[in-house]
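Key idea: predict the complex, not the pieces.
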Amino acid sequence: MMFAKPVSTFDSPALHRLSRIAPLGDAARDLIALAVREPRRVPMRRELLIEGRAVPEPMLLVSGWAARVRILADGRRQFLSFLLPGDLIGLCRHDRPLAVSTVQTLTDAKVATVPDVDLPELRQAYAASNALEEAYLLAQITRLGRLNALDRICDLMLEIHERLALADLVQGDSFEVPLTQEMLADALGLTPVHINRMLQQARRDGDLEWRGSLVTLLDPAALSHRLGRTPARVTA
Amino acid sequence: MMFAKPVSTFDSPALHRLSRIAPLGDAARDLIALAVREPRRVPMRRELLIEGRAVPEPMLLVSGWAARVRILADGRRQFLSFLLPGDLIGLCRHDRPLAVSTVQTLTDAKVATVPDVDLPELRQAYAASNALEEAYLLAQITRLGRLNALDRICDLMLEIHERLALADLVQGDSFEVPLTQEMLADALGLTPVHINRMLQQARRDGDLEWRGSLVTLLDPAALSHRLGRTPARVTA
DNA sequence: CGGGGAATTGAGGCTTCTCAAGCTTAGTGG
DNA sequence: CCACTAAGCTTGAGAAGCCTCAATTCCCCG
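Result:
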């Protein structure tokens, strides 16, 4: 069941992220690598968790994007956060937990069931991942509360850049963002029309390019500095 | 050290909340009650946690209000969430954790150091408290992203009503809210001026009264229904 | 009685929304 | 290979919501 070399060196964005946010020994690494090898395929727009329903076993997003989403009574939609490869879904430390938000895939995705916490190293990785997720929620609150439309877009792109980099999914300063302008609007509390105009603005300003689904940040360091951003850190 | 009766029946809003969100046996109850008995007094506007610094031992807010806050480079302020009596501060399950946000007292407060998780019942209560806190963060994102100014105010007041009720701090539908309009603005992503106007609107609409620091919801059920709110639930 | 923080009011401007139409692109079936 | 379609992107014009600045009033506390 354990392939000393092959499994340990098996590489995937998800595994990459986890081993980067917390040091994983060989045992933990093998457990994750094994789980990642046989993911479940989930098509686009499918629900992985449903608000108010029981949370099943914890999952690891192996590839593709998902989002935590809330739908209002009148049909308005708010994306609460995006879930990227390597993110954990449905981790709970209490008994009989209920999902506090619906999670749905935004693209075709691969999802693995991960071992529940038994190994100290895994516990550590899960906890760090959890803390990071909280940090991103706080960043989202600040974006929505205090940034204007243009800065919201730029700030979110910087966050995605930072997160995808953890999973080794950034080349140069380019990365895939499978979001429509409408989805972006629902994440940033704006309308698609305004997103469109501000994206043009961002391009004119030389902050980013967006061709097809490939986003390129032209000078992430400068942009980061202009927005007063600091990368998320949860461990000393 | 253990006073069988006195300690077990010692009552405080904080203890009330914890025993309500997760069933506490006598042992857990005594541990908390004991901690709550000798709280540390913290004056208004003091920092309990500082973003980026190491997180000290976990604390329980025994009385008073605090808030998680983020200050932008240009001085703008965003309150990320409010912490009410019975809320836990600085719970982390990974090693050498760094605070992801600053926490500061909004009023004079009492804070107790709580036992780190060793008892299953405590672990359960802490985890449930944590899950609730996450639920409130998600609610805050939805408020900022998709509600207009008036609805943001009403929705937040309903949330505070719900949370204070857990700690037995609501009488009828009235409760103390030690917030200035400026603080409310910084929580809801608005300006004090606009908060002022919308509060008047809410009063005219017969949704709430706000005299001194006492808020009264005139018909919480109807308001809740109008906003499409559902109370936070994290455990089946 | 005076000082100071908080609440209130007014006027004008900017950001974002709404509604509505036209365009572009990728995928589909003839 | 070419309509045809549907989803997504783009543009325009006008309206609404919220902000800014500035002044005034209220109220608590010393």
